[in-house]
Amino acid sequence: MTDNIEQIIEKVSAGTRISEAEALALLESRELIAAGQAADATRRRMLLGDDVTFVVDRNINYTNFCTTGCDFCAFHRPIGSDEGYLLSNDQIFQKIEETIELGGTGIMMQGGLHPKLGIDYYEELFRAIKERYDITIHSLSPPEIYHISKVSRLPLDETLARLKQAGLDSLPGGGAEILVNEVRHRMSPKKIDADTWMSVMRSAHEAGLKSTATMMFGSVETLADRIEHLRRIRDLQDETGGFRAFIPWTFQETNTELEGTASSSGIDYLMTLAVSRIYLDNVPSIQASWVTQGLKVAQVSLMFGANDMGSTMIEENVVAAAGVSYRVGKEELVAAIRAAGRRPVQRDNAYQPVDFP
């Protein structure tokens, strides 16, 4: 270990915030064990315990029709495609009822950017859900929110206020990919840019809607791009305090236009996870991505700064479309957490405990 990296680790151990340059130096060093130990110590200092949380909920991908057509996405279909769909309300209600029967407390509705779905559709759907079910609606990523505002010809703040009034409880952090426009222009030139993603999240937080943040890495970005992404998340969190968790996950290339470009290994995943925990010293939770890494790597993630296992994902279609279909039930997740020497805690989407299995 170089003197520079030792100094950075000492700074982390003292609980001192590290700079963007120091985070990049640590990520480039590939000092995996040192970074993991520092990230784990940061987790313990921030959370004061060894609980590992998870949520029982369901991803409801209500439509795969999308006008954006991102190169990294295997899920979307163009308008008019025979393989496209839009779920009916009854189909969505059935999925919610199945979720509740399985002990679920929330739903995460995300879909393509459908050109005909304006705010009236979401208001009516969310109100109908809330009238029928006691369930959290953790739904609509920033690209969807922005798309709804444009289709409906409404400003962002009014769009968010109306969705919240109709029953939207919080936002997932999807659509962030890498918050560097040069990268986004290569991967998804029709999707909102980095500044717009940030603006939607800032407006959501100002409206009283908490959210998560994500980072999809291992495609065409550089290590410096990853740190720039983290910097933008940390800066906004300093400003609003609205992010409940950060979820880094690796690009899945199969069946996408970028197939053959993936560059992330298990070691790269763990290193990026550890640096994320260290650098994002103001975001409460860091989530392990068993959906893309599998349960065994997710277990190891708990030693590299992660304190949350995310969702049991009763249903998930977007990552599955790229050829990755890990499935884990509540019992398996609980067993894996215990095997890692931690205490499992089932939470809701507000990160409040609902059960100690």
Q: How would you describe what is shown here?
A:
This protein has 357 residues and is α/β, with parallel strands linked by helices. It has one domain: TIM Barrel (Alpha-Beta Barrel), CATH 3.20.20. 45% of the residues lie in helices and 13% in strands. It has 14 helices and 11 strands. The strands form 3 sheets. The protein has a 4-stranded mixed β-sheet with strand order 9-1-10-11. The protein has a 4-stranded parallel β-sheet with strand order 5-6-7-8. A 3-stranded parallel β-sheet has the order 2-3-4, with helices on one face. Helix 11 links the parallel strand 7 and strand 8. The protein is globular and about 60 Å long. About 5% of the residues have low confidence.
